Amino acid sequence: MSDRPLLTRQQSRAVDTIAAEKYHIPGVILMENAGRGCAELLLSHSPASVLICCGPGNNGGDGYVIARHLDLLGVPVKIALFCPRERIHGDALINFRIIEAAGIEILDFADEPLCEWFASRLHEADWVVDAMLGTGVTSPPREPMASAIRQINAASAQVMAIDIPSGLDCDTGQPNTPTIEANFTATFVTSKPGYAKPSAKPYVGEVHVVDIGTPQALLGEIFR
To answer: Which residues are recorded as binding K(+) (predicted)?
Structure first.
């Protein structure tokens, strides 16, 4: 996977679209593969307690899958939700309903400003998973996620970013204010153009590529 070309923001979107429309792969399968791969990567670091911070989109959906797999293996895990539940849709909603039914603890932090209760939850975790904002976001994070990012960066926990540190531009490598400072980034299919830029280095940490099961023929269409 390391010799694959880099995926831009537009190409990342195209992977999901072509997978569904031409290769008959539902997005929920790609999300499952992504989340399980990230969970396995995190487990290799022997986490004692994990707080997974989720936004409203598919990045949050990956976080729900990670939570389920960690819970299955006995790792204490909680979800910190930074959006109203009614904003969760599609594949992310499928996985949100699964963790609700499974009884995984969900902490609601959709209100502004972010309360001190979040800081206390941060102190209970040795790992934080950033599943708030994905590669499609180009503007600065809004509240309450902006406050969450600042508190996460100030905490002592290790941080794993899912696909991209929230606040970073995946094409240019330019950080917005604020941007997650991750210890490592688990990105999908292949790395992104901005991650090798000097401006991105303090935020992405070590970059690990997680395969999500996209067919080789599909990748050939993307990279030709």
So the answer is: 59, 130, 166
